[in-house]
Batch of 2 targets.
Target 1
Amino acid sequence: MPKHKHQIVPNPKPWGSIRSSLHFLIAALVATLLIVTVYLTQEYGVQFLENCTASTTIVKTSGDPSSSCNLFSGKWVFDNQSYPLYKGLQCTYMSDQLACEKFGRKDLSFQNRRWQPHECDLPRFNATALLERLRNKRLVYVGDSLNRNQWVSMVCLVESAVPPELKSMHTNGSLTTFKAIEYNASIEFYWAPLLVESNSDHPVNHRLPDRIVRVQAIEKHARHWTDADFLVFNSFLWWRRSNMSVLWGSFGSSDGIYKKVEMPRVYEMALKTWSNWLEVHVNPNKTQLFFVSMSPTHQSAEEWGVTNGENCYGETELIKEEGYHGNGSDPKIMRVVENVLGELKTRGS
Ligand SMILES: *[C@@H]1O[C@H](CO)[C@@H](O)[C@H](O)[C@H]1NC(C)=O
Ligand SMILES: *[C@@H]1O[C@H](CO)[C@@H](O)[C@H](O)[C@H]1NC(C)=O
Ligand SMILES: *[C@@H]1O[C@H](CO)[C@@H](O)[C@H](O)[C@H]1NC(C)=O
Ligand SMILES: *[C@@H]1O[C@H](CO)[C@@H](O)[C@H](O)[C@H]1NC(C)=O
Ligand SMILES: *[C@@H]1O[C@H](CO)[C@@H](O)[C@H](O)[C@H]1NC(C)=O
Ligand SMILES: *[C@@H]1O[C@H](CO)[C@@H](O)[C@H](O)[C@H]1NC(C)=O
Ligand SMILES: *[C@@H]1O[C@H](CO)[C@@H](O)[C@H](O)[C@H]1NC(C)=O
Ligand SMILES: *[C@@H]1O[C@H](CO)[C@@H](O)[C@H](O)[C@H]1NC(C)=O
């Protein structure tokens, strides 16, 4: 048995443990936070609490109760001493889609960005400690290519600590599973860009001109991850259009009813299906949830101060302004996420 001296007691308020990152966080932050959650809950007996409008606060439950740290309030700093934490070229499971260096990217300073909360320091990443924490557990990322990116990063972060014969990667349909065999730990990705069923569910061929979504159907996806110990969802970019075709009935059946529904209403319908499923099927004492909504779109060079209507090609520096929301962000979507997650938390407790 691993020693869990300060192991946190299950959250007394079910669903109080939903981690919602409602702000415009660069998605990498979520990986960082997840690592931190996983560490701190074990190492220092730390618990996350947050309010549904904004930030996650980390509150020590052992030690000095007055010290707390808002992990969402911080900035990216340059750190070439301890970063990068892994080398893309050396990662056994790096995906070509994400392999910038392999395909010739020269500026690699983006790998030296470390998230620095204003109020505290994060512990240095330790792959062994993370695997220990994931022993006999499933960590599942569900969503679109942003979450797949997060998942690949997480796999690359830990896989170097595992010898070749003790790890595996396996794909079955929409689910891809990395296993650290000795730990019986798995880190998985499930493709579901709209969370609910849609005509974009094929893990490879999903770029279709007319997006059709079954806003009331999620079981086909959810049965693959309902029993996970950690669930990290994301869904936003695939909803960025003015309306979507909603299907009542099933794909391929002749009596299906199609109707155009506008944003953000259609997003809200899907998110409610998702949260209803979680409420009924996921045990809040066992499973920790994370939800990533908005992510920056970085499509226009104007955001970097170039005004001639170009895209982000060649931009290598961060936007330094703290609290910058990003040109593609949609406050209406944020309100929906706040409401649905807020309700889920309340209903669960
Ligand atoms: C939620 O957090 C924000 C930012 O930290 C704070 O200003 C606000 O008062 C909090 N709201 C509640 C209800 O705790
Ligand atoms: C880190 O960056 C600084 C400033 O750019 C540079 O002077 C130093 O040589 C770098 N150190 C390493 C180990 O790359
Ligand atoms: C990483 O974590 C393992 C397991 O908890 C521990 O034995 C090891 O000392 C840690 N390594 C560092 C560099 O902190
Ligand atoms: C291995 O991990 C799975 C979760 O991924 C768990 O259900 C199972 O009980 C674990 N096996 C053992 C022998 O603990
Ligand atoms: C793939 O997943 C399906 C459905 O969950 C399951 O029935 C099947 O056994 C899996 N196949 C492999 C090779 O794991
Ligand atoms: C639905 O979206 C399409 C493409 O974004 C647009 O051309 C069309 O006008 C929209 N229809 C309605 C009813 O808003
Ligand atoms: C979760 O834990 C609480 C307190 O230990 C318990 O009362 C409740 O029944 C548990 N819920 C589930 C779904 O197991
Ligand atoms: C975002 O930038 C694009 C391209 O410059 C511009 O057309 C669009 O109006 C901007 N959107 C917002 C919300 O500022």
Note: Residues 10, 14, 283, 285 surround 2-acetamido-2-deoxy-beta-D-glucopyranose (ligand 7) (CB under 6 Å).
Target 2
Amino acid sequence: MLFLKQDQELVPQVLVKGEHADGEIVRIGDVDEVIEKPIDFMFPFNLDLQHFLSGRSLLLEEVPFSIEEIHEHVQHGYVVYRQGILSEAGGYRCGRCGNREMQLFYSFRCSRCKNVCVYCRQCIMMGRVTQCTPLLEWKGPTPTIQYNDVLEWSGTLSPSQAEASAKIKEAIRERTDLLVWAVCGAGKTEMLFEGIEEGMRLGLRIAIATPRTDVVLELTPRFRRVFPKVPIASLYGGSEDRHCFAPLVITTTHQLLRFKKAFDVMIIDEVDAFPYAADEMLQHAAEAARTNNSALIFLTATPKEVWQRECYSGKRNCVILPARFHRHPLPIPTFVWCGNWRKDIEKGKIPKSVLKWFQQRLGSGKQALIFFPHIELMEMALPLFREFDTRIESVHSEDPARKEKVQAMRDSKIPILLTTTILERGVTFPNIDVAVVGAEDDTFTESTLVQIAGRVGRSPQYPDGNITFFHHGQTRAMIRARNQLLRMNRDARSKRLVDG
Ligand SMILES: [Zn+2]
Ligand SMILES: [Zn+2]
């Protein structure tokens, strides 16, 4: 879109009547500064537009209101055009994702501004932001909607869930930061219910963000069931709720890029999971989507090392849930040396110790997952395992039949499933044993190994199981993972959170 610049004011070119009035035609990215109009409190602003745009940062094509109406709100100070790409000393900055890396800016011959136009590659999956792209933001009053007594849930919290729930509620009320460190199987979702109810009562806007679409899809119906009166938006690539205003938003971290200063409470689930922990863009998005006075709550089973230290030394506000909901201790991994397993597999044989473990499971009919650090070696190993049972399968992130295989595993049609770290979290099979082959590989970080061990003994019917790390040399990550689990069990026993 192009603008006519008159004095300091920007008028969309399409709204300029007749021949050019005084002024020059510019791209928004070329002006030094966008002047914001003061709010005219007498102006009867459009409530639908307020609800739609409040807390967002959107492309023109994402806003289903006419440019006439939008511009009228700009002139009365309720909406502002922001620069999609800002020129900075020595380069550019993306107004949406915060990107400053020069190699992530490309230029092309743009049909909109009929010029060579720079755009951001980093956030291109959300629609292209260019030098001629304005981002629309709401500057008027924020809608406040309060909901009283909205939680419809008849379940009960375990004592440690109740403790965490109280801490979460407090963080939401006081708008502070909190880390909830809960072991795999502690039951994180239920702990959020009361805090969210409190937030709704206070008229706060809450986001639950997670790196993975699967988690959004799993959480949404659970929250809709217990908060039937609260509008809940469920956002991920391709979702349909993008255009509704909701006090509670369950979203992938990517979709946070479309928000600005929107949320009074930001809850980030699985903060350690790829890609959030690694991705600066998403950290920027989560930061930019919060209001200045907001609560920030992290949920994780496997915080990074520095956070663990801060928790234990009292430097970080945190609550630790060392026990599972079903009150059984966490299964502890056994370390078994398996020699040079790569060489073995390349030579067409399964390492002896792994073979023995595998045959025991196959013989007793207990289902198992066997983790491998890399796809290639796993695929090489698959036929070796299949010689014993042709129902054995493998799965990895690029496998098109991934969902079907996981389902077949759930239906017990697959006795043993070989997998990469794709199944390290999120999936629950009720009664399985787990092996890691090549546990010394760099792929298996402390947090990955804790997550993998967390697959075992999830259900109250089958709270135990075997978890074995087959290795060609112990690593610090392996030892730290085991110590972390041992410490959780010790804490759980001393607080009487586990039986026996
Ligand atoms: Zn960008
Ligand atoms: Zn352009």
Note: The chain has a mean pLDDT of 93.
